[in-house]
User: Fold these one by one.
Assistant:
Number 1:
Amino acid sequence: MSIALTVTNYVGIVAFAVSGSIKAIRKGMDLLGIVVLGFTTALGGGIISNIILGIHPPINLTYLPYPLTAISASLATFIFYKAFSNAGKPLMYADAVGLGAFSASGASLAYSVSHNPLLVVLVGSITAVGGGVIRDLLSNEVPVILTREFYASAAILGSLVYFLLRFIGVNDASAALASMTVTIILRFMALRLKWELPRRVINEGIAKA
């Protein structure tokens, strides 16, 4: 894994752990709940992806720097909640960096196991957004990626970019860097331009009639 991808992976772990911990605090959870939600948000997607690929035990549970970073970020959020909760935009952009890093690393790992395009895109996307889905489900909410924002779509496209570049012969490091860059740019643009996927609006009055 390149140095850039390693650094951004840690940025993503911290950003995702903070977002999960903030959600837990706002839901009135205790310290254990805060750490659990922070941990699963940061590392849950990677764990699911490893299970899909048959990697046991998952890397996120055996490579100690990853869980220690997630737990530390969760505890820091508990202690310095006001500071983190007021850092809305910086956290959103850090989250976008993590989204790019996670989708690229997930796609890279999947490609090393199989060159199946569906598997590469699926695993890349799950690595990036799976933790957020677990966070929302544990918070008794419909996952955000299914209801609003151009978020999972950026991870899907970034993972697809990785596969296409590897398919035409680009090496792993360059493909991962390009994939990460595309995902981050798409997410940044979505934040600035407020992109959303189309949805079907149902008129309740007509539906009941």
Note: Residues 106 and 124 are 4 Å apart (CA to CA).
Number 2:
Amino acid sequence: MESNDFILTDELLEKVNKFSRAKLAADEIYTFPVILCDNEVDRDYERFSIDALRKLAELFIGKTGIFDHNPKGENQTARIFDTEVKVSTDRITSAGEPYAYLSAKAYMIRTAKSADLIAEIDGGIKKEVSVSCSVKSHICSICGADMKKSPCTHIKGAEYGGKICSYILNDPFDAYEWSFVAIPAQKNAGVTKTYDNKYDKDYAALKSELAQAKKENFQAREMLKKEILRLSFLYNPLITVKTVGFLTNSLSFNQLLELKENLEQDLKEKEINSKGKTNTTNKNINEFKITKKEN
């Protein structure tokens, strides 16, 4: 077990005062540790690389803490004055890497207004946090493709050859804020007292969630393929089921969506053109009848 508690030394107080206009004394501020993010697969099937965590450690120095990622000035509650990436020697992530997390030290001013929040933090009510940042790369864990540059067909949460697909967040270039939230994307992110190996138990729950996601992705994909088959028949009855099946089996989920939308658009245009031709034919018939009466 590794403790995240810390004593506000003169050295740390000096780091706090780099961000204050007036020189603050130790009894004027409240400090607390917080885990901002880690390299475990989160609820969105994404994870930071260890190198990304190290870069974020630099970027999050001085960043403000707010509520629910709402950027109003009145929501500013705390500020980070020190960070450190910690790597566990006895814990492995679901991706097979040593577990690492970005630990930060934050401070807030002791006032009558902040007293309730301090009590909620100490009481474990305000605990979970989420970070807001930007990264240059989303790397597919299955094939290594950068999803921002050359997307592959692998789907987050789906299983390929016994491995669950996730996106590795790499090359962070900006950190905006961190927020107190009710449900963070990363399960281990939050205000902490200690780091405990009990989090290893979350792996079983994560596997269950991934299995469910795989099932839901498969069902959604099959429904989409059936809808494409129906639309294809309406557009051109001569297209065979075998041909459509061969095509849809080779497409990603996003490509299937795009194909469905294109077919729907083509059918609408076909219907409009068909109505236009019918109206023109009716008009010619009426003109013929009128001409016939005049003669």
Note: Helices lie at 10-16, 50-59, 115-122, 202-235, 241-249, 253-294.
Number 3:
Amino acid sequence: MERLARRPGDPLLWSRFVQIYGPHVLQWCRDLHLQEADARDVAQEVLLSFWKAVDRFQYDPEKRFRSYLKQLVVWVWQDWKHRRDGKANVTGCGDVQTLLENLPDRESLLTRLDRVFDIELLRLAMRQVQKRVQPQTWEAFKLQAIEGRSGKETAERLGMKLGTVMWARSSVQGMIRTTLRELDRTDDDSEAGRE
């Protein structure tokens, strides 16, 4: 975030930010029951709002960066909704928490948003680990951990020893856990202004 704040016009930094957070912002907009075109418009406004304010962004160590982005999504959505409905612009109110508290079923929405982010983080970690291991090792992990096949069945199917199959599952699971911690730490670092 520090580098992005210093060089907000840097296309590589901004592209990386959009690549990491853009899909989440769009999904959060969809979760607000917007039509696809409206969800894309609001997501674009969210990213533009953040880009305009990135040099003034202040990290709050009590909050996660994704929570800040989720609040920004709700804030921009409220503003968009008020503009669309011809009501007064609420962007200047400055109190995102008040907006969140006035949203119906906000806990359910925030819980869903967290779940979506966590699923996407797991998928990203799994894609990264899959690239680092041998195809047969990944297949042994997938058959057991994802498809629920037994170690014996997996070993027979892949022509591997049972011990090797069990090691593959354990090893890949450990790598995924480590990658998740690193990705989560990266998210925390970006919150702390190190990104």
Note: Residues 88-110, 187-195 have pLDDT under 50 and may be disordered.
Number 4:
Amino acid sequence: MPENFLSKLNGFEDYQFENFFLIAGPCAVESEELTLQIAEEIKSICQDLSIPFIFKASYKKANRSKLDSFSGIGDEKALKILSKVKEGLDLPLITDIHSAEEAAIAAKHVDVLQIPAFLCRQTELLQAAANTGKIVNVKKGQFLNADSMKFAADKIVATGNHNILLTERGSFFGYQDLVVDFRNIKIMDAFGYPVVYDATHSLQMPNQSSGVTSGKPELIAHMSKVAIASGVKGLFIETHPEPSKALSDGANMLPLALLKNLLKNLIKIYQVTRAID
């Protein structure tokens, strides 16, 4: 990269990719107490392991299968909680946005705006996010090949914002499964932006007849190891103290108690593969 824009984030000062960075947290803001608890625990883990960390939680969930699925505790309330995390724990934050109008609202509270995979081709949304001046993380659509993500990045660059992350999160395989083509990491890396691997959503099993997405969280460690060996710069993991009680996407989250040991193993792989390169 001509400029390491990530170094502008708290905890990323002088960051030169000596280690991968982590985007992690619960799927959504559920309560102030739980959000702060998760953020504080992940921060402690990452400090111990010298892993730069961006805390993730969606302040609202717009892409729900069922009308009565959890979509949030209220936008203003959730954003205030995220601000408390940022100020109280001195952490950079990332959250999803779903419309052009949401970009400026969310940008007041977070450092990185995330474009959900289903919306990665929405020009107005991409450019509204870019116009805030924030880092924009674009998740690759389940329906796109990796080469097509260059066009999403180009829409952001057209605004003058070059602060872009691209995230691999799997491709549709039939109606109710996803697969990960790890060639996508290399293809997107060639565009010149840091590539992130989403280790939780890539293991979803969507479009279940129940209207509730299931998943294979037992494969998170395995897939993360392959992704690190494949050259990703960052890892995205949704985690929760009790995934079975999570209000959103609990079926594919990593139990928080397992996070530190996984990260320790991933650091070893990262160091070996970078030595080989």
Note: The two ends are 17 Å apart (CA to CA).
